[in-house]
Amino acid sequence: GAWRVGAAGLQVTRSIGDGDLKGSGVTADPEVTEMALGPGDTFLVVASDGLWDVVSSEAAVGLVHDTVKEPSMCAQRLATEALTRGSKDNITVLVAFLQPVRSLELIFSEGKAKWKRTETEYGSLVH
Predict the structure, then answer these.
(1) pLDDT per residue as tens digits for the range 53-97
(2) Cβ proximity of 105 and 69 under 8 Å
(3) At residue 56, what are phi and psi to the nearest 5 degrees?
(4) Pairwise CA distance, residues 32 & 67, whole Å
C-alpha cells in the first residue's frame, strides 16, 4: 500500500502541502544532485523513485542506448521497464537529449562495435 502519515493516514504524496504534518517528517524539499555536464554527455534522465528504486543508472543508460533510434520512446521504455520490474511507486521519466539524435546513433553504434571488437580480442567480459 501507499505510505501514510499523521493520525488521518494521509498519503505522503497528498500530505506535502499540509503544514500540520511537517513534524511527521514530510517535506516538499526535493533530493537534488548537481553535476557539471561535459562535452561527452549525450543525454540526461530525470526520473522519480518509481524508476530509480528498481532500475540502476547503468541499466537506464543501456535502455536509452538501445532505444535511441526512436528518441520519443526512450522515456516510455524506461517507465515500462520499471513497471515490469515491479515498481510500486509513482513513475515519472524524462529523457533530454543534449546532442542531435543522429550524432547519438553514430556514437552508440561505434561504441557497440568497439565493445564487440574488445570482446572478440579478449573473450567475454563481465560488465
Answers:
(1) 999 999 999 999 888 888 889 999 999 999 999 998 889 999 999
(2) yes
(3) -75, 165
(4) 27
Amino acid of residue 44: L
Helix (H, G, I), strand (E, B) or coil at 121: helix
Q: Which residue has the cell 526512436?
A: 70
Which backbone phi and psi does 108 adopt, to 5 degrees?
-70, -40
CB 104 within 8 A of CB 97: yes
Check if the beta carbon of residue 112 is closer than 8 Å to that of residue 66: no
Give bridge partners of residue 5 from the DSSP assignment: 10
Q: String of b and e for 51-78 (b: at least 16 CB within 10 Å)? A: bbebbeeeebeebbbebbeeeeebbebb
The values of phi and psi at residue 95, to 5°, are -115, 120
Nine-digit cell at 58?
A: 547503468
Reported pTM? 0.64
Question: What letter represents residue 74's amino acid?
Answer: C
∠60-64-69 over CA atoms, to 5°? 170
